[in-house]
Amino acid sequence: MLQIKTIKVTCDRCKKVVEGIQGKDFIGGFFEMTKWQEYRLENEQYVCDSCMLADPKYVESYGSSF
After folding, report:
1. Radius of gyration (C-alpha) of the chain in whole angstroms
2. Per the count of CB atoms within 10 A, which of 18, 21, 32, 36 is most buried?
């Protein structure tokens, strides 16, 4: 059975509260930075989609959605 829960986190870059979803093997609406070390700034835990999709290193690796 797939369990999905709504979770609120604060983006460590823009400080906006983001409501996302979290399941056993995925998240949506934000990035959990322990799994994205290459793009992580010091002491970041969560980064919202907007901030990550604007990050130059991320865009260089994955392209822009804009």
Report:
1. 12
2. 18
Tokens coding 44: 């970041």
Q: What's this model's pTM, rounded to 2 decimal places?
A: 0.87
If you search the block for the tokens 């822009």, which residue do you land on? Answer: 64
Measure Cα distances from 65 to 1, 4, 15, 48, 54 in Å: 32, 26, 22, 15, 9
Q: 61: part of which helix (H) or strand (E)?
A: helix 56-62
Residue 7: closest CA among 33, 35, 27: 27
Largest Cα–Cα distance of the chain, in whole Å?
A: 38
Distance CA 57, CA 44 (A): 16
